Amino acid sequence: MSAPRTLYDKIFDDHVVDRQDDGTCLLYIDRHLVHEVTSPQAFEGLRLSGRKVRHPEKTLAVVDHNVSTSPERKFGIKNEESRIQVEALAKNAKDFGVEYYSENDIRQGIVHIIGPEQGFTLPGMTIVCGDSHTSTHGAFGALAHGIGTSEVEHVLATQTLIQRKAKNMLVRVDGQLPEGVTAKDIILAIIGEIGTAGGTGYVIEYAGEAIRSLSMEGRMTICNMSIEGGARAGLIAADETTFAYVKDKPRAPKGAAWDAALAYWKTLQSDEGAHFDKVIVLDAAKLPPIVSWGSSPEDVVSVQGIVPNPDDITDENKRTSKQRALDYMGLTPGTKITDIALDRVFIGSCTNGRIEDLRAAAKVIEGKTVNPRVNAMIVPGSGLVKEQAEAEGLDKIFLAAGFDWREPGCSMCLAMNDDRLKPHERCASTSNRNFEGRQGFKGRTHLVSPAMAAAAAIAGHFVDIRDWK
Ligand SMILES: CC(C)[C@H](C(=O)O)[C@@H](O)C(=O)O
Ligand code: SF4
After folding, report:
1. Which positions bind [4Fe-4S] cluster (predicted)?
2. Is the Cβ–Cβ distance between 188 and 182 less than 8 Å?
3. What pLDDT, on a 0 to 100 scale, did the predictor assign at position 74?
4. Which atom of ligand 1 lies closest to the CA of 438?
5. In terms of Cα–Cα distance, which of 431, 227, 434 is closest to 331?
6. 129 a known binding residue?
7. How remote is the CA of residue 77 from the centroid of ligand 2, in Å?
8. Sign (positive or negative) of CA dihedral 445, 449, 454, 456
9. Which CATH fold would you assign to the domain 7-165?
10. Which of 143, 155, 379, 385 would bridge with 406, disulfide CB 3.0–4.6 Å?
């Protein structure tokens, strides 16, 4: 009998092509996602050295960060810098024979949303992309993480990646979530608990009853933000929920290949007694809806809480940095979270731009009107999410309430396109990062769940979604 292994150990071992004595490994990469921001130099490198893409069929390219989310975009991208990047990816994909979804393709969307939608993301795979939130795909029981541009070139050329094994962390979320509390609140609570460096050097496996009860959308939200907790990747063992989601997706295996894949996927679970270097346990039943107050994803508090006082922190460096965060955010200690007024609301991103997120928002919004002081937008994560939302009539609910309903892309998750905050504007956002300037120069971001963002848009300030009528 071999020693019990974790899910991470198993996927890693199954992909080792070569292992050096010092622990450096060459890993086989099953899937490579490519977007316009981190790929231009990688393709240029291939051109200069006269190399080809080793496996174009295991590579998929899409534009997301720079695309405009305005319906006008079908007439061409106005911003010069964005247009150059988008056109470069279109050309590189064509020259190297890689499948490419342009901004006019219904399958286009945020790279981490389209992979799962197409069945390009499958359990047990190694998946990389030149993007930190590649951890999202870990929701399928895949080993998925971001890589740098020079590694993008290496993977394009060889379909392999040099890696050292990370440590194993288990985050177990027991019990059931209360009504109104979501996957987003779970992951914000975890990051609040472990801090943004808590996962450094680890791959996190999420387990426990609350995680098992989540839909694939919720699991993706959790794995997506593993990176904000400092981890290299996050993953959740595949189960019936996963198999039901994956089945019949365009690129999922079919017929006998499906049966064989399923038999393998079912072996991909941490063994009884497998060793984890660190274990964190949370009780889902005790979790409230969460709001971030500062400029780090670990700066979180219950919606029923108050803006904390840095004077209460003994560590001087930490005190200074949290004071700076409060100054940046324009907040006073002691302010009730529910008294914080908003200027903008953004519902979208690879954290919360999937159909279930839009359904949750629509449920809160139906029959109500956006507060006149608030400018609110909803950006579907992909063309297929948009199509599905419209088939369900969600767009009508959003538009009737006064929300902007946009074309798919990263949008105001980061200020790399036309959607951005003005200086000092305060935004309730369903995205994953609240760093200074993330959503626009001097913009102020509060991270929340889709239902919380929707309610804040209507009320004009944060409200406890558990009291929503
Ligand atoms: C632009 C890209 C490299 C970046 C990332 O790696 O995460 C972006 O997606 C982000 O969310 O900040
Ligand atoms: S939606 Fe945001 S976090 Fe996700 S890939 Fe785009 S910019 Fe990065």
Report:
1. 350, 410, 413
2. no
3. 87
4. 12
5. 434
6. no
7. 19
8. negative
9. Aconitase; domain 3 (3.30.499)
10. 379
Distance 437 CA to ligand 2 centre (A): 15
Instruction: Kindly give the parts of the chain with pLDDT less than 50.
Output: none
> Residue 1 has what pLDDT?
63
Residue 427 annotated as part of some ligand binding site: no
Residue-level pLDDT at 323: 97
CATH hierarchy code of domain 167-239+270-286: 3.40.1060.10
Residue type (1 letter), 367: G
Residues in the chain: 469
349 Cβ inside 6 Å of ligand 2: yes
Is 290-467 in the same CATH topology as 7-165?
yes
pTM of the predicted model, to two decimals? 0.98
CA of 418 to the centre of ligand 2 (A): 15
Tell me, what's the pLDDT at 77? Answer: 85
Which of the following CATH numbers is that of domain 290-467: 3.40.50.620, 3.40.50.300, 3.40.50.2300, 3.30.499.10?
3.30.499.10
Question: Which letter does DSSP use for residue 264 in this model?
Answer: H
